Amino acid sequence: MDDHSRPRALATEAVHAGRDDLAGLGLHAPPIDLSTTYPSADSRAEAARVDAFAAHGVLDDGPPVYARLGNPTVARFETALARLEGTDTAVAFASGMAALTAVLLARLGAGLRHVVAVRPLYGCSDHLLTAGALGSEVTWVDAAGIADAIRPDTGLVMVESPANPTLAEVDLRAVAHACGSVPLLVDNTFATPVLQRPLDSGARLVLHSATKYLGGHGDVLGGVVACDELFARELRKVRFATGGVLHPLAGYLLLRGLSTLPVRVRAASATAAELARRLTADPRVTRVHYPRIGGAMVAFEVAGDPHAVIAGVELITPAVSLGSVDSLIQHPASISHRVVAADDRRAAGVSDRLLRLSAGLEDVEDLWADLDRALGAEGRGRHDVRRPALSAVRPARTADGPPPASRRVAR
Ligand SMILES: *Cc1c(COP(=O)(O)O)cnc(C)c1O
Q1: Which is catalytic among the residues 33, 187, 370, 372?
Q2: Alpha carbon 362 to chain centroid, angstroms
Q3: 122 catalytic, yes or no?
Q4: Of the chain's two ends, which shows fewer C-beta atoms within 10 Å, N or C?
Q5: What are the pLDDT digits (tens) for 78-101?
Q6: Are 33 and 76 in contact (CB under 8 A)?
Q7: Can 68 be counted among the known catalytic residues?
């Protein structure tokens, strides 16, 4: 914490949070501490510190004893993300799924095994809850049904907004109100704190797959939960017991990723909004999903074969995941949401013709040319329809005005 009374803006925090002590250390870049263990000649003192951690999930000042209890480089990332989300603290994990697992185990540890959740969620989150492999039990509801689904043993309410992969949004303030005293977990992976801070709407836990926008370059796997200190203590104890720790190199890369997060998210969001606009006006596309809140993700349903579009892109990478500097496209029914039973998937609004595009930092005209070609290849391949060249149709596509009734932007 610093002693500034005026809160710093997000863009400032993004480049300075977690680095406040560096100048005093005579450093500019954060140091990477790869130690797995830390020497101490005083084993009585170590015993007291281990006891304190086991009881309260906090270490007093001093080295972490052993790397599964904590790591200074990872702690910098946790501090920085907490500052961006406006929470007391944050606890980092090896992946987004490890982070969600720790939340569920922390609640089970408190004797609260029931979870209320709203679909859609990321496919593996859905699967983890549905399978109940950790001993939890889920009740799926729509947002309006949350209050009625809460039981005495409900330990968690979970939503994603905008949700993976349909970009469906829920009213977080209304949802938080419906939760009463049950902690609300919001998966904020898609929005990032640049577009939405769920704590301000009443969420207690904010989860990220840090693999996505926080890292931002497709080269680091991580997860994090931003929350109050009380809940963080439970999460640190679970992390110590189960071992899903974030590697210090990953912590370094995630901290570095945060520094460009606001710039990346704003630039990619402008591109995504423009692509959503052009897709909405395109007859080869039957429905476009682009959230009210904005963001760098676009989902759209195609009239033809979605697999042909995936096979047809050249600039855009046909790959699962999202939030990288380069654009990615995937077919949720085949990959990200394959583990969700087909009926549940469709009932959650995940059409078999839905494609999910993560806009990167490429030029929008290059991305559109690639999408247009991939959609056109699909059209020609499946239906043998000749498409006019891009230049010939562009004026019609950029014309403003409401889309035909058969095509609409899902809000
Ligand atoms: C990818 C993703 C996850 C899982 O994160 P991993 O880092 O892949 O374990 C969770 N939630 C959302 C919304 C995601 O997109």
Answers
A1: 187
A2: 21
A3: yes
A4: N
A5: 999 999 999 999 999 999 999 999
A6: no
A7: yes
Cα of 146 to ligand 1 centre, how many Å?
23
Tell me, what amino acid is at 340?
Answer: V
The verdict on 91 and 108 lying in the same domain is: yes
Which residues 6+ apart lie within 8 Å of 255 measured at CB? 18, 19, 30, 73, 76, 77, 80
- The domain spanning residue 366 has which CATH number? 3.90.1150.10
Ligand 1 proximal residues by C-beta, below 6 Å: 95-97, 122, 124-125, 160, 164, 187, 189, 209, 211-212, 221, 223
- Verify that 204 and 333 share a domain, yes or no: no
**From atom 2 of ligand 1, which residue's Cα is the shortest distance away?**
209
Please give the angle made by the CA atoms of 191, 193 and 197, to the nearest 5 degrees.
Answer: 95
Same domain for 305 and 191: no
DSSP SS3 for 58: coil
Whether 287 and 222 map to the same domain: the answer is no
Ligand 1 atom with the smallest distance to the CA of 97 is: 9
The tens digit of pLDDT for each residue in 120-144 reads 999 999 999 999 999 999 999 999 9
Look up 237 and say whether it is catalytic.
Answer: no
Q: The whole model's pTM is what? A: 0.91
| Residue 215 belongs to domain with CATH number | 3.40.640.10
| Residue 48 maps to a domain | no
Residue nearest to ligand 1 atom 1, measured at CA: 209
Residue 120: give the domain boundaries.
10-35+71-259
